[in-house]
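Private note to self, pasted from the team thread so I don't lose it. Backbone tokens:
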């Protein structure tokens, strides 16, 4: 069902295979099928083949309607995302099939998600809300479905498609958070050293008890840990953490340069890594991607990791939100840019105005609905695979005003005041989107 080698296998739900097998062998032409399957077939990258709705060279499986029950628990003990989908076997063209009626069921206030298997339909309907939406492929026919309010998909016409100028980046993968992500406890200016402490509770891997070390601060950067570090248009890290970034890139040049510096110029830091050599050698990402080089290197790092402005969003979040992260004072090093963990995605920017402008567009209600409409709710990663924005134009008054407005909102600590201003951002951003053409 997938052309991508990293998708399929265990990710392939057997319900998809059964759906096609039944349609092929037991449905006559124009026959209809109503199945309970998993919702991910309509939005997961690993189900692109399912979404072709092609049974064979002659027949297609035309989707008629989907009732999405993933916000409920219709089956005791089952954790999958349940949908009831109806299809029709047809030998006619699949043109003009979309939009597909897509109804989302959710519990009313005061009602439980779990549904008693023995109650009547009338009782179930009394405790749920059913919202009518529409489903469209975000790109070509097999792409993930965007599930939006009726009429809203058409409003996203100018932002649909793969971006030609924005690239979503992933934060650094270290694999051992308790060793790489630390707090600075003390400073020794005379020796140009800082005291750090390991964090045994920061990951599943046992790294032993917490230990303190004096190290050179050269490789330490302020870090963005996760979704709790920011809200829409507001960046406020929950913890005062720093991350070791031994290498500035993952090519041979950067890796060898890092080894030369660490092993010759940073003896305290090198000794620190040596103290955990066995654990560092056992990291899965290191063994898969960096095994030819020294054991302390990290992955998903490049020039973009050190950009002065980053528009950030979380890989895993119930509701999409974006903020701008800039820099912070690092003891004995001066101002340094925030570096994200691998659970954070970001756009690297060199210009402040562009960063706040993009942040404003991302926090637009229509854009957020579009992003949430076609991404699996627990994973929001490379959003620019199916989205494009108008470029920042320093001569456009609306673009400048949006950037300034978003920058000022980042200074507002009060949630209520910030929400009121974000509403203005949404209106302005939608105006910019609606009058623009794709970059």
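Design output:
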């Amino acid at each position: 069902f997938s052309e991508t080698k990293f998708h399929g296998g265990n990710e392939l739900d057997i319900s998809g295979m059964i759906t096609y097998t039944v349609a092929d062998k037991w449905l006559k032409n124009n026959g209809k099928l109503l199945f309970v399957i998993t919702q991910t077939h309509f939005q997961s990258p690993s189900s692109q083949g399912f979404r072709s709705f092609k049974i064979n060279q002659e027949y297609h499986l035309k989707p008629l309607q989907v009732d999405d029950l993933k916000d409920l628990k219709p089956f005791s003990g089952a954790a999958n995302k349940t949908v009831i989908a109806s299809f029709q076997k047809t030998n006619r063209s699949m043109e003009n099939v979309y939009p597909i009626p897509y109804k989302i069921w959710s519990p009313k206030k005061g009602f439980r998600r779990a549904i008693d298997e023995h109650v009547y339909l009338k009782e179930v309907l009394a405790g749920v809300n059913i919202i009518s939406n529409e489903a469209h492929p975000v790109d070509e026919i097999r792409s993930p479905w965007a599930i939006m309010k009726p009429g809203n998909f058409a409003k996203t016409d100018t932002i649909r498609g793969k971006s030609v100028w924005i690239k979503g980046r992933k934060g650094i993968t270290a694999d051992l958070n308790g060793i790489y992500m630390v707090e600075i406890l003390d400073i020794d200016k005379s020796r140009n050293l800082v005291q750090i402490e390991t964090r045994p509770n920061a990951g599943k891997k046992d790294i032993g008890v917490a230990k303190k070390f004096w190290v050179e601060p050269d490789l330490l950067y302020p870090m963005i840990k996760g979704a709790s570090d920011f809200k829409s248009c507001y960046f406020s890290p929950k913890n005062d953490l720093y991350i070791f970034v031994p290498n500035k890139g993952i090519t041979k040049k950067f890796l060898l340069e890092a080894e030369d510096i660490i092993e010759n110029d940073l003896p305290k830091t090198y000794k620190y890594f040596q103290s955990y050599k066995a654990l560092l050698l056992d990291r899965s990402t290191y063994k898969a991607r960096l095994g030819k080089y020294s054991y302390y290197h990290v992955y998903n790092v490049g020039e973009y990791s050190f950009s002065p402005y980053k528009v950030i969003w979380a890989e895993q979040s119930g509701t999409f939100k974006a903020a701008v992260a800039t820099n912070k004072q690092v003891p004995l090093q001066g101002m340094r840019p925030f570096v994200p963990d691998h659970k954070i995605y970001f756009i690297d920017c060199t210009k402040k105005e562009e960063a706040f402008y993009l942040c404003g567009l991302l926090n637009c209600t229509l854009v957020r609905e579009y992003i949430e409409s076609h991404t699996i709710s627990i994973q929001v990663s490379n959003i620019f695979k199916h989205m494009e924005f108008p470029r920042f134009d320093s001569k456009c008054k609306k673009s400048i005003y949006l950037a300034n407005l978003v920058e000022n909102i980042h200074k507002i600590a009060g949630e209520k005041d910030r929400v009121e201003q974000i509403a203005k951002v949404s209106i302005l951003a939608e105006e910019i989107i609606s009058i623009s053409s794709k970059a």
